[in-house]
Design a protein that fits this description.
The complex is a heterodimer. By secondary structure, chain A is an alpha/beta fold. In chain A, 32% of the residues lie in helices and 27% in strands. Chain A is built from seven helices and ten strands. Chain A is globular. Chain B contains 28 helices and 20 strands. A nine-stranded mixed β-sheet of chain B has the order 16-17-15-18-14-13-19-12-20. The chains are: A alpha/beta, B alpha+beta. Chains A and B meet through strand 1, helix 2 and helix 3 of A and helix 16, helix 25 and helix 26 of B.
C-alpha cells in the first residue's frame, strides 16, 4: 500500500497541496433513503496552498461538512476530483483512505469527540497508537503536545473531567500529534463561549503554523474567518466567492 | 391520548425502526418461555399418558385390588365375589411388549389380559364396555383357545395395514411371537392410550405372552349402584384378610405418581424458570438501554407536560409488548420443542418412577396460560426499574445529559447489597435439609445468583481499572478504546454480563452436578457390582416386562462348572407409609459390597448381622424419605398383613428414587411366598471361563419350559447399560442449558448493538482519525469478549458454588441421594470455551453495525 506524507515545503516554494475540481455530491434523504437525491455540493472548485489557513464559511446545510468529509476521504464524490498532494483520494480503497488519513489528516470537531474514559495523554496519543508507535514514544509525544496547548499539568486527567475549552485543546493536540499535512476543523468554536473560542482559534492557528499544517476550517461565524488567510463563502452547495481577510 | 402519543414517540417508532434489536429481544424472551413451556408440556404429557391409561383400562371400576408386591392368585376372583355390594369383578394382567411398525421403529404396545370367557358366556362382544368387531369366521371359542388370537384397536390395525385375520409379530419376554388379529376394538377411548397401541387378549394368553406364572396384576371392581364404598372395602377386606391386599380407588395411583414426580418436576421446572429469568434479563437490558438512549426525548416530553406516571407506563408498555409477543412465540416454539422432548421425558420418568408411554403431546391449556402469565410478569418486573428510573429523572437533567448513562447505585452499595444477599443465602443453607421439595436449596441458590449479579458492576469497574493500570502499556489501542467504552457504560455492561453469568452458572452447576452424580454412580457401581455375570429377563420396555425367572434356576446355575457363589434377587413395589418402595430379597451372605454403608461399617458385617437377626438393610433414599435410622423398625406390607422389621444398616444406593428394603432370601420367601427371581449375580471361581459359563447358563435356561430366554451380561456390560440409562435421564437438562446460553448471548448482542448505536459519534471520530472499518469492528468484538470473560468467569465461580448446593443439598432434599461433589476442570473449560466463542459471535452483529455507522457513506439514514 502506498503511504505518503505531505512533502516538506522549502522557503519560497508554495505548492498547492489541495486541489478540488468540479466536485459534486448528492445524498438520498429519509429512512431507507427512499426520497429523491438532494445535491449537497454542486461543481465546487478551489485550491489551497501548503501552510494556508482557510475558512469555509456558510449557513447550516450549505455543504461545509460534506466538503470536509470529502477532503478527509471519509466519503467519495459523485463526480469531480479531490487531490491532496497530487493524489486523487477517490482512487484509493476505503482501507487505503483510512491509512492515508491516519498519517496525513488531523480532525477537530465542534463536539470535540474525545473518548471520555481515556486520559488527556491517551486521547492525544490515539493517532500514534493507531500507527503502532511504541507506547512510551507515543506518550512522550502526547505530553509534548499537551504542553503546547497548555494542558501539561492535566495529562493524567480523564477528559470528561475537563472544561469545554480544555477538551477542544486536547482535540487540537490530537489533530497535530502525528504531524499531518492537513488539519480539517469543523466548527471548532461552535460549542464554546466567544472568549474561549478566540483562545482556541489562536491556539489552532499558532500550532498549525508551528507544525506547518494546512488548516481548512468550516464555520458559520464571520469573526472566526478573521483568523484565516482566506475565506471561501458557500451557499447551497456552491462556492460563491473567495475573500482575503 | 397523552399516553398514546408518548408511547408512539418513546416506544413504537423505536421498535419499528430498530427491527434487529426488537427481534433479538423478542427471540430471547421466546426462547426462555419456550424452554419452560416445553419442559412443562412434556412433563404433563407424560403424566397425562399414565393417567389416561389408568382411567381407560380401569373403565367403570371404582375400586382396584392389587397384591402387596407379588401378583394376585386368580382364585381370589371367586373370593371377591363373596363380598357384599359388588356388581362385577374383572381380573386383569397388564404388560408391555414391542412391535416394529412399518417405518421400522419399535413401538410399545399395552397388552391387556382380560377375562374373555366371562364376556363370551354373557354373549357379549365388549371389552371393558368397548364394543369390538370379531373376525369373520372366527368364533369366541377360537379366541379363547388360540393364544395367538388378539383384539387390536382400530388405529393400530389401520396404522399397520392389518385386516381381520392378518398376522403380525411382537417382541415380548422370551422372544418373538406371531399374533393374529381376531377382532378390532371400536371407539375413540382406546385411541387415547399409547396412540391406540393396545391389544386385548384372554387373561390366560396374556399370562403366557408376558410370562406371569399364573398370577394376575389386579382386580377391577364395580360396586352395586348405591353401595357405599366404605362398606364394599370393609367387606372385601374381610374376604381377603386385613392388609393382605391393597384396596384403593384408581385415582390413588395418580396421586402417588404426582407425589413421586413432584421433586423431579420441580427440578426440571426450576431449570425452565431460570431460562425465563435469563429472558427477563434481556427485557431489563433492552428497556434500560431504551431509557438511556431516549433520555432526551423523555426530557422533552416531560418539559411539554407529560406526567411522570405516563413515562413509567410507556416503558412498562414496551416491556409488556416485548413480553407478550415473545411469550406467545415461546408458547408456539415450546410446543414444537415439547413434541421432540416428550419421549425423552417419558423415558426418564419410566426408568426412574413409573411406566408412561407418551409419544405425543397432550395439550393442557393451563400450561400456556401459566407460561404467558409468567412471561408477562417477568417482563413487567424487568421493565419496572428502568421505567421508574425514566419517570424519576428531572426533565432538565435528561435534556442536558443527553444519552449518557446515569451513575445508578454506588459501587460500594452494590457490593454491600451483594454481600448481604450472600450472607442470607448462607444462613438459609444452615437449615436442616428436609426430604421433599428442595425449597431451602433453591432459596440459597437464588440469593447467591442475586449476590453475583449485584457484584458484577463493581467487579467490572475494578477489572477494567486493574487492566488499565497493569497492562495499558502493552495492550494496544484497540483494547484501550474497548476498555474506555466498557467503563463508560459499566451499568449496561453489567446487565448484559448478568444474563450471561446466570446462564453460565446454570450450565456449569447442572453440568457439574450431572458429572458428579455420574462419577458417584460409577464409583458406586464399582463397589456393588462385584459379580462376574448378571442374569436377568430382558426389559422390552424401560420399566421392564414383569416377567421373572423361577427359583429353581439358581440351583441350575450353581451346578455349572466354574461357578462359585450365586446371589439370586427378587424385588417388587409395595407401599410403605403410602410411599412406593421396593422390597427385595437376596442372599445376604453372598453380598460383596465395598464401602457402601452410610455409617462406614463393613457391608459384609452388616449383611451378616441382618441375616442372623432376621432384620433388613435399607437404602439411603428410603431411610431419608421415611426418616428411619439404624436400630429403628420399619413396617412393611406382606400378603399376611404388615410385618415389623428392624433396620440393621443403611446403604448407599442410586438405582431407585423409591428406595429399597432388602432382606435375606429365606425371610423374603417366607413373607411373600415368592421364590421367583428378577436377577441372579454369578461369581465365578478363579480361572473360570466367563464365555463358557455364559453359554452354559443360556443353554440351561432352555431346559425350563415356561421361562423366558434370559440375558447374561458381564460386569462391564451392565455398567455401560446403567450409565446409558443415567445419561437418558439427564438428556433434557442439556436442551434447557443450551437455550439459556443462546438467550444470554442474544442479551450481549442487543446490549452491544445499542451500545454501538449510542457510541456512533465516538466510533465515527475514530474513523476520522484513520481507524479502518475493521479496527472499529475489532474494538466492538473486544468489548464483547471482555463481557464474555467477566460473565463467564463469574458465572463459572457462581456455577461451582451452585453446583455444590445442587449436589450436596438439592439432590439430597429431592431424592435422598448423597452425591460426592467433584469439580471437573475439562467440563469447565469446555463450557467456558464454548460460551466464549458464542459471545465473540454475539459481537459480530454489533461489530458490523458499528462499522456501518462509523463509515460515512452516500446515504444519510435515520438512526
Amino acid at each position: 500500500m502506498l503511504l505518503f506524507r505531505i512533502p516538506p515545503h522549502g522557503p519560497g516554494f508554495v505548492p498547492m497541496i489541495l486541489n478540488i475540481n468540479n466536485l459534486t455530491k448528492s445524498y438520498k434523504e429519509g429512512y431507507n433513503g427512499q426520497s429523491p437525491a438532494h445535491r449537497v455540493l454542486d461543481d465546487v472548485t478551489f485550491s489551497v496552498a501548503s501552510g494556508e489557513f482557510i475558512a469555509l464559511r456558510g449557513a447550516s446545510g450549505s455543504g461545509k461538512t460534506t466538503l470536509l468529509n470529502l477532503i478527509g476521504g471519509l466519503d467519495v464524490p459523485d463526480s469531480g476530483r479531490v487531490e491532496v498532494a497530487g493524489q486523487d483520494i477517490a482512487l484509493m480503497s476505503d482501507d487505503g483512505r483510512s491509512e492515508w488519513r491516519l498519517h496525513s489528516i488531523g480532525f477537530v470537531f465542534q463536539f470535540f469527540n474525545l473518548i471520555g474514559n481515556l486520559t488527556v495523554t491517551e486521547n492525544i496519543a490515539l493517532p500514534l497508537l493507531f500507527q503502532d508507535t511504541p507506547d512510551r514514544k507515543a506518550r512522550e509525544r502526547a505530553h509534548a503536545l499537551a504542553d503546547e496547548v497548555a494542558l501539561g499539568d492535566k495529562v493524567d486527567r480523564f477528559v470528561n473531567q475537563l472544561s469545554g475549552g480544555e477538551m477542544q485543546r486536547v482535540a487540537i493536540a490530537r489533530a497535530l500529534v502525528h504531524e499531518p499535512g492537513v488539519v480539517l476543523a469543523d466548527e471548532p468554536t461552535g460549542n464554546l463561549d466567544s472568549t474561549t473560542g478566540h483562545v482556541i482559534l489562536d491556539l489552532l492557528k499558532a500550532a498549525s503554523k508551528r507544525h506547518g499544517a494546512t488548516v481548512v476550517m468550516a464555520t458559520h461565524d464571520h469573526k472566526c474567518a478573521d483568523y484565516c488567510d482566506r475565506t471561501l463563502e458557500m451557499t447551497d452547495g456552491r462556492l460563491m466567492k473567495t475573500e482575503a481577510p | 391520548m397523552m399516553f398514546g402519543a408518548a408511547l408512539r414517540i418513546l416506544v413504537l417508532i423505536h421498535l419499528k425502526h430498530q427491527p434487529s434489536r426488537t427481534l433479538l429481544t423478542i427471540l430471547g424472551v421466546a426462547l426462555g418461555t419456550g424452554a419452560l413451556m416445553a419442559i412443562d408440556l412434556a412433563n404433563e404429557s407424560a403424566v397425562q399418558s399414565f393417567r389416561k391409561t389408568v382411567s381407560t383400562v380401569t373403565g367403570q371400576a371404582t375400586l382396584t385390588v392389587t397384591g402387596n408386591g407379588t401378583g394376585l392368585d386368580p382364585r381370589l376372583v371367586d373370593s371377591a365375589s363373596r363380598a357384599n355390594g359388588i356388581r362385577s369383578i374383572s381380573p386383569l394382567i397388564e404388560g408391555r411388549i414391542l412391535h416394529r411398525n412399518k417405518n421400522g421403529y419399535d413401538e410399545t404396545i399395552l397388552v391387556l389380559g382380560v377375562d374373555l370367557l366371562a364376556s363370551t358366556e354373557a354373549g357379549d362382544t365388549t371389552v371393558r364396555n368397548i364394543q369390538f368387531e370379531p373376525a369373520q369366521g372366527l368364533d369366541f371359542r377360537k379366541l379363547l383357545a388360540d393364544p395367538s388370537c388378539v383384539i387390536v384397536t382400530e388405529s393400530f390395525s389401520s396404522d399397520n395395514g392389518l385386516q381381520l385375520g392378518d398376522d403380525f409379530v411382537v417382541s415380548a419376554s422370551g422372544g418373538e411371537h406371531r399374533l393374529t388379529v381376531a377382532g378390532v376394538l371400536s371407539g375413540d377411548r382406546w385411541a387415547a392410550v399409547l396412540d391406540g397401541n393396545v391389544l386385548v387378549t384372554d387373561i390366560a394368553h396374556a399370562d403366557l405372552l408376558l410370562k406371569r406364572d399364573g398370577l394376575i396384576d389386579r382386580l377391577d371392581i364395580v360396586p352395586e349402584p348405591g353401595a357405599a364404598e366404605q362398606t364394599v372395602v370393609a367387606s372385601l377386606k374381610r374376604v381377603f384378610g386385613n392388609d393382605a391386599v391393597r384396596i384403593e380407588r384408581p385415582e390413588a395411583r395418580n396421586e402417588r405418581v404426582d407425589q413421586m414426580l413432584a421433586a423431579f418436576r420441580f427440578n426440571l421446572n426450576a431449570l425452565g424458570h431460570l431460562a425465563v429469568l435469563v429472558g427477563a434479563f434481556l427485557i431489563f437490558n433492552t428497556v434500560s438501554i431504551a431509557v438511556v438512549r431516549r433520555r432526551t426525548d423523555i426530557g422533552m416530553l416531560r418539559a411539554l407536560g407529560v406526567r411522570r406516571n405516563i413515562i413509567r407506563r410507556v416503558f412498562l408498555a414496551e416491556g409488556l409488548i416485548l413480553g407478550i409477543v415473545g411469550s406467545c412465540l415461546g408458547i408456539l416454539g415450546g410446543t414444537i420443542l415439547a413434541a421432540f422432548l416428550v419421549e425423552t421425558v417419558s423415558d426418564a420418568i419410566s426408568i426412574n418412577f413409573v411406566q408412561t408411554d407418551a409419544s405425543r403431546l397432550t395439550f393442557d391449556w393451563s400450561i400456556p396460560g401459566v407460561v404467558l402469565v409468567l412471561g408477562i410478569a417477568a417482563s413487567l418486573a424487568a421493565s419496572w426499574f428502568p421505567a421508574t428510573e425514566a419517570a424519576s429523572t428531572p426533565p432538565a437533567n435528561t435534556m442536558r445529559t443527553g444519552s449518557r448513562e446515569r451513575s445508578g447505585p454506588s459501587l460500594r452499595k452494590l457490593w454491600l447489597a451483594g454481600s448481604v444477599s450472600a450472607a442470607a443465602g448462607g444462613l438459609l443453607l444452615l437449615q436442616e435439609p428436609r426430604s421433599g421439595l428442595p425449597i431451602t436449596g433453591y432459596g440459597t441458590s437464588l440469593l447467591l445468583i442475586l449476590s453475583f449479579i449485584l457484584w458484577l458492576k463493581p467487579a467490572i469497574a475494578a477489572l477494567t481499572a486493574l487492566v488499565r493500570k497493569t497492562a495499558s502499556g502493552f495492550m494496544g489501542s484497540n483494547c484501550l478504546l474497548a476498555l474506555a467504552g466498557l467503563r463508560s457504560s459499566a451499568g449496561k455492561v453489567a446487565i448484559a454480563a448478568g444474563g450471561l453469568l446466570m446462564s453460565v452458572a446454570m450450565t456449569v452447576s447442572v453440568g457439574l452436578m450431572v458429572e458428579s452424580f455420574r462419577q458417584t454412580v460409577t464409583t458406586w457401581m464399582e463397589q456393588v457390582l462385584q459379580a462376574d455375570l448378571y442374569v436377568s429377563i430382558p426389559r422390552v420396555t424401560s420399566s421392564g416386562s414383569g416377567a421373572t425367572m423361577p427359583g429353581e434356576f439358581t440351583a441350575m446355575i450353581e451346578s455349572i462348572d466354574g461357578v462359585g457363589t450365586v446371589d439370586p434377587f427378587r424385588s417388587f413395589e409395595v407401599l410403605v407409609n403410602n410411599k412406593p418402595t421396593n422390597v427385595g430379597g437376596g442372599r445376604l451372605a453372598a453380598v460383596r459390597f465395598e464401602n457402601t454403608m452410610l455409617d462406614g461399617r463393613s457391608a459384609q458385617d452388616v449383611m451378616e448381622a441382618a441375616r442372623k437377626k432376621g432384620a433388613v438393610v435399607v437404602s439411603e433414599s428410603f431411610a431419608r424419605a421415611h426418616d428411619i435410622s439404624v436400630g429403628e423398625t420399619v413396617e412393611i406390607p406382606t400378603p399376611d398383613g404388615y410385618r415389623v422389621l428392624t433396620v440393621e444398616g443403611v446403604y448407599y444406593d442410586y438405582s431407585s428414587e423409591k428406595g429399597y428394603v432388602i432382606m435375606d432370601r429365606p425371610l423374603f420367601e417366607e413373607l411373600y411366598d415368592d421364590d421367583r427371581l428378577d436377577s441372579i449375580s454369578v461369581y465365578l471361581q478363579a480361572g473360570a471361563d466367563r464365555k463358557r459359563v455364559r453359554e452354559e447358563i443360556l443353554s440351561r435356561a432352555v431346559l425350563i419350559e415356561s421361562m423366558p430366554t434370559p440375558e447374561v451380561r458381564s460386569n462391564d456390560e451392565l455398567r455401560t447399560y446403567a450409565l446409558e440409562a443415567f445419561d437418558q435421564t439427564f438428556a433434557v437438562t442439556s436442551v434447557v442449558r443450551i437455550i439459556a446460553v443462546i438467550v444470554a448471548t442474544l442479551g450481549i448482542t442487543t446490549m452491544m448493538l445499542a451500545q454501538t448505536i449510542d457510541r456512533q459519534h465516538e466510533l465515527r471520530a475514530l474513523r476520522y482519525m484513520g481507524a479502518t472499518v475493521k479496527r472499529v469492528a475489532r474494538i466492538v468484538v473486544i468489548e464483547s469478549a471482555f463481557i464474555g470473560v467477566v460473565g463467564i468467569g463469574m458465572g463459572i465461580v457462581a456455577g461451582v458454588i451452585l453446583s455444590w448446593i445442587l449436589t450436596t443439598r438439592i439432590m439430597l432434599e429431592s431424592f435422598g441421594w448423597t452425591i460426592r461433589f467433584e469439580i471437573s476442570p475439562p467440563l469447565l473449560f469446555e463450557i467456558g470455551g464454548l460460551v466464549f466463542i458464542a459471545t465473540l459471535l454475539a459481537g459480530i452483529i454489533p461489530a458490523r453495525e458499528g462499522a456501518r455507522l462509523a463509515a460515512t457513506n452516500s446515504e444519510r439514514r435515520f438512526t
